[in-house]
């Protein structure tokens, strides 16, 4: 994205279980003119009505609470067009962006193209040395009272924390601040997958052995070094393999995770359409993350 986002939207998801494609609630907060001007929250009926006890302990949502709630496509229908071209804020954005991408893919819905900014990373850079960077701790820091782990309230707190940092930083806007700090991430859009479409054909064409090539990407490392990331067929299905040194010890290195999340900022190979198709090609939204994580399993900063 080369222009400033038309909208600033903070988003927060709560999930029913460890799967990223199990949202049971979403909250959004819109920012205009340096303040929150609109807030929305929706309960969501997950496709699989399986609620983990740990998740229930965190957000308090039970199957009976969402039994009559709309499914994800209906719940998000009013908001998805607004996400396209926006700067989307989230606290621990890799989780919330991952939930959005995984659930859109699970329902065969188009992935909007947008930029994202993680307020957790933003706070760590702007307020170094804080004892904790949890949403509740940062809300206390700025004197904000809210109900933690309520999706609507969490999105509102995320927005207010971002605005507090913006005011202190003196930056003209959050998009500029995110770019200045190197925290803004571009998310590639993706057309809705169709049965027998490009994703299915590409998956059938994957090589039977990892030594033979599949989809290839070249990404820029933090020091400018280019690395090859290849889609290969492993023992448990297709996966991404990176040529960086870190992947020898951690296959889900940051280059793999970024591509799996649809990030194209560091892409050097000029094939963003292939990045957009990765979610469908990989089949399992969580296979290139650091293991299945839910809101309950987020690491405490």
TrEMBL record:
Pfam families: RNase_T. CDD domains: DNA_pol_III_epsilon_like. InterPro entries: Ribonucl_H, RNaseH-like_sf, RNaseH_sf, Znf_SWIM. GO terms for molecular function: exonuclease activity. Residues 227-264 form the SWIM-type domain. SUPFAM superfamilies: Ribonuclease H-like. It comes from Methylobacterium crusticola. This is 3'-5' exonuclease DinG. The lineage of its organism: Bacteria, Pseudomonadati, Pseudomonadota, Alphaproteobacteria, Hyphomicrobiales. It comes from the Bacteria. Keywords: Exonuclease, Hydrolase, Metal-binding, Nuclease, Zinc, Zinc-finger.
